Structure formats: structure tokens, C-alpha cells
Amino acid sequence: MGLARAGIWLALLLVWELAWRWGLPQYILGPLEILKHFFAALGSQELYGHIGASLARSLPGFAVGAVLGIALGLAAGVGRGFDRMLSPVIFLTYPVPKIVMLPVFMLWFGIGDLSKILIIALACFYPVFINAYYGVKATPTILVWSGLNMGAGRWQIFRRVVVPSAAPMIFSGLRVSLALSFIVMFATEMINARSGLGHLIRDAENSLRFDLMYVSLASIAILGYAGDQLLLLGRHRLLAWQGEPA
Amino acid sequence: MRFVFIGIALLAWETAARSGLWSPLLFPSLERILRELMLFLSSGESLMQAWVSLYRAFAGFTLAAVAGVAAGILMGRSRFLASLLDPLFSGTYAVPKLALFPIFIFIFGLGSLSKIALVFLECLYPIVIITYHGARDVNRVLLWSAQNLGATRGAILRRIVIPAAAPHIFAGFRVALPVAMIVVVITEMISSTDGLGYLVIYSMSSLKTDRMLAVVVVISLVGLLLDWALVQLRDRLVYWEKLETYYV
Question: What is the CATH number for A156?
């Protein structure tokens, strides 16, 4: 499997590089060329500033959305009254593209970072909430009964039975949300920002700096991949008793 | 009881708008939004813009559905293809494909094509991955029985693999369809001269907040309607398996 994995990547890169040497349009660079520009950019201060600005938007947004999503999702999964009040609103607004609220948020909270962080938080909230909610709902009843039989209190059952049972679902929600946070961050920066990777790619596009476009693209790709791997590592450590995700 | 929250939210909005604390430019009343909504729905030109967005979302989604289901089923039934394609999809899954949009603009131009291409790419991932898992986990006893009874490969695919994977395929569609709308709106907000996303940005730039919110309502309704229609279609086609999700 490892060999096939490396093989397909190498073959793809080789075809790409050869096609580039054969002569592709100016706006498509070869992989070696991109690597060269990327390392050149790593040597300069500018790229780190943009990466920092992007992370300063996506990470707080993700954190706020994830914490609220877990808290409210668990609460709605456990409390029936709360469920009946909150869940219809969440499930009704779930298929709505949250990014359309960005202009509204820009009016209310200004065109700075706050409106971007809030829109990222809003987008990240939904997958986490829904997964936490279904995670709680899918708790095997027999485990709850056993807990009750052995004299556990309500709080103990919540902490020792319900939360661990919902944890794998919560992690898959977090995984979706983390990827989403990068997408929304990039989108908000492309729509309106003066810093960040999304701004960098727009700027490069307007000034036909194709090298910078690919540097920005490579940075966001690496960030997205690294974030996902970190989350999987965290899941692996916290949920060692569970199987690996598909 | 179920919609108590929505009622409270609307009421709070209307009170806040009428309190005079904020300018109506920031916080238009529901009445003004509703009026703009009626204006939108009665004007042919606005509906044309909605159609442009829908066309882009549908074109990209349909292409991704056809290619994704085919690729997912092939990967599920052939270990060789899975070992070839799975690393590609799982390796680039967490990478925001939206970053490719500026390059797509150079390749496919500023019009609909670059947007459709991006919708296709973003929708492809969930459909391929979920279909793949569905096609891979088909009950072996069913496959063996069919083989024993002398079914051909084509018959097995048509009569067993596809029906068994159908709930998964629809689960993939249900993830991908909102994604299609999101990508269309985002790309229209970033660079476009038509479509609903463009209308949102245009109304905001001309400080027509009530019109902007009306378009936001239209986009939300379209998103809801598409999801509802997909669930209806699923319940007709996959009638033997109940959908375990929340119905509002």
C-alpha cells in the first residue's frame, strides 16, 4: 500500500513536470519550479506574516465554533426540552450556505478580523453540533441502564458513558469543521482582506505573479493537510480504545 | 413549540430594528426585507440571476455525481483501482480546493466554466469517498450467492452492488449538494458579474442592506429546497432503508 501510494504520487509529479517542460501555458508551473519558489518565499519574512494573519483568523473561529458546537450538541442530545427548542432551528438552517452571512457580519462587526472570525465560527459550529448530537443519540441504551443499575448518578453517566460514547462522532465533526475553517478563511480573505493567504493569492493574481500564486496555494495546502494530521494524531491518543477512522 | 426559537428570533429582530438604536442601513426591519423579497421574486431579471447560480451549482454537481459514483464503485470493487486512487483522494481531502480558483480562472476563463469546475472538484470528494466505502462493504454473502446462482459481473453490479451502495451514494449527495451551493456563492462573491453571490456583494456595496438580506433569504431558501428535494428523491429510490436523520 505504501509503495502504491508513493508510486502514484511520483508518477503524477513526473507527468506534470514533463508536461511543463514540453510547454504548458505560462500560468501553470511545474512542480520543481513551485518547490523552488516556495523555498525562496520561506526565506523571506512576508510569507510568515500572511500565514500568521490567516491562522489568527481561522484558529479562533474554529475554536469558538467547536466549543459551542460540542457544548450545545451534547446539551441538545441529553436534554429533551432543550432539544425540542434548539434542534429545529439548527437542522432548518443547516443546508444554508453560511458564507452569505459574511456581508451582513461585515456591516455589523466591521470589515476587520472580527467579522471573519465570527463567520468561520458559524460555519464550524454546524458539523460539530450535528455530530455531537447524533453521537449522544447513538449511545447504546444498555450502557446507560448498566450505569444506572450500578448506582451511577446522572452527572457520572453523562461524563463516563455518554461523552466517551459520543467522542468518535465528535472527532469526525471536528475534522469536517477544521477543513471548513480553512475554506471559509480563504474565502473571506479573497473577498476582502489586507493580509493573509487568500489576500496574497488575489494580489498575485492581479499582478500576474504566478510564482506567488503557487506559493500561497502550496502554503494553504500544507496548512490544511498538517491540521488534519494533527487532529488525527489527537484522536489517536485520546481514543486509543477506538478503531482508526476510515 | 418546535419553532418557538425562530419566532423569538424574528420578534427580537423586529424590535431591535424598530427601536431606532441602529440605523436602518445596518438593521432593516422585517417589513422592508419582505418587500425587497417580493420585488426580487416578481422581477424577471432577479430570477434570471438565481437561475444562473442554480445552473452553475447543478452543472458542477451533476458532473461530480456521475464521475464520483462511477469512480467510487470502481474503487470499491477493484483493489487495484482503490490502491491507485485512494491515496490521491485521502491525501488531498483536507486541502482547501478553493485555493485553485485563481488558477481555474486562468484556465477556464472568468465565466461560468471556472465556477462549474470548482464546484465539480469540491463535490467530487465526498461523493467518491462515501460511495467507495458503500461499494466496498457490500455483504459478501450476497455476492457469493449471486455468483453461485450464475450471475454475470454486470448483473451483480446492477442488482447487488449498486442497490447496496445506494444509501451511501445518497449520503454522499446530501453532503455534496450544500457544498455546491456554497462554492457557487463564494466564487460569485469573489469574482463575477452575475448570480446570487454577486447580487449580495453588489447590494452591500450600494448600501441596500434590505435588498442584500432579501437575497440572503433567497439563497437560504434555495439551499433548503434543494436538500428537501434530494431527501424526497432518496426516500422514493431507497425506500427499503429509512433515513435516520432529523426531519424538520
Answer: 1.10.3720.10
